[in-house]
Every structure is written in structure tokens, then in C-alpha cells.
Design brief:
GapA-binding peptide SR1P; alpha+beta; 37 residues; 3 strands; three-stranded mixed beta sheet; SR1P; 1 helix; elongated
Length: 37
């Protein structure tokens, strides 16, 4: 089981089935819309 965490606000976005336990970093919808370049 992997946890997907927002790299900006560190809120948990989702969980994903995986062979190992781990953490992935992404950007949640709230932070993504605020920080578009």
C-alpha cells in the first residue's frame, strides 16, 4: 500500500495498492490550481 501525499501542503491525497509500503508525492487539486506556472 502506498500513500500519495501533497508535496505542498502534506495532505494525504489517496492510497494506492502496491507490493511495498511507501509514500509518493504529488500535488493536490487545491495546491495545483494555486501554483500553476
Amino acid at each position: 500500500m502506498e500513500t500519495i501525499v501533497c508535496q505542498t501542503c502534506e495532505e494525504v491525497i489517496a492510497f494506492q495498492e502496491a507490493d511495498k509500503v511507501g509514500t509518493l508525492y504529488g500535488t493536490c487539486c487545491d495546491c495545483h490550481s494555486d501554483h500553476q506556472e
